[in-house]
Amino acid sequence: MSTVSYKKLWKLLIDKDMKRKDLREATGISTASMAKLSKNENLTTDVLLKICDALKCDISDIMEVSLDVEVQSDDEDKKV
């Protein structure tokens, strides 16, 4: 399973001297979407693209995806 982090977004807002409220107003995204961002939850691509358009940046500038590697047991590797 993958996990999402929006730490890059919060750093970018600091660099641009913007508050979360400013971002919400500039993008028109809902308070529910802002809450999801704060909790590092998944958002629709539309919301992420609105943020990128408002901040004039690429999606990789606002988020990171970490892949969790699952370790399989020896029993799962053996097929009968």
Protein architecture, described:
The structure is a single chain. 11% of the residues are buried. This protein starts with a strand and ends with a helix. It contains five helices and two strands. It has a single domain, classed as 434 Repressor (Amino-terminal Domain) (Orthogonal Bundle). A two-stranded antiparallel ribbon has the order 1-2. With 80 residues, the chain is mainly alpha-helical. It is globular, with a radius of gyration of 17 Å. The model has no long low-confidence stretch (mean pLDDT 89).
- The first-level CATH class name: Mainly Alpha
Query: CATH superfamily, please?
Result: lambda repressor-like DNA-binding domains
This entry's quaternary arrangement is single chain
The CATH topology assignment is 434 Repressor (Amino-terminal Domain)
> Which structural class is indicated by helix and strand composition?
mainly alpha
Contiguous low-pLDDT stretches (5 residues minimum) are none
Count up the domains. Answer: 1
Q: What's the helix count?
A: 5
* Percentage of residues in helical conformation: 40-55%
Q: First CA to last CA: what distance? A: 27 Å
Question: How would you sum up the global shape?
Answer: globular
Please report the total strand number as a whole number: 2
Q: How do the helices and strands follow one another from N- to C-terminus?
A: EHHHHEH
CATH architecture group name = Orthogonal Bundle
Strand content: 5-15%
Tell me, rounded to a whole number, the average pLDDT.
89
Output the radius of gyration: 17 Å
What strand line-up does the widest sheet have? 1-2
The major β-sheet equals: 2 strands, antiparallel
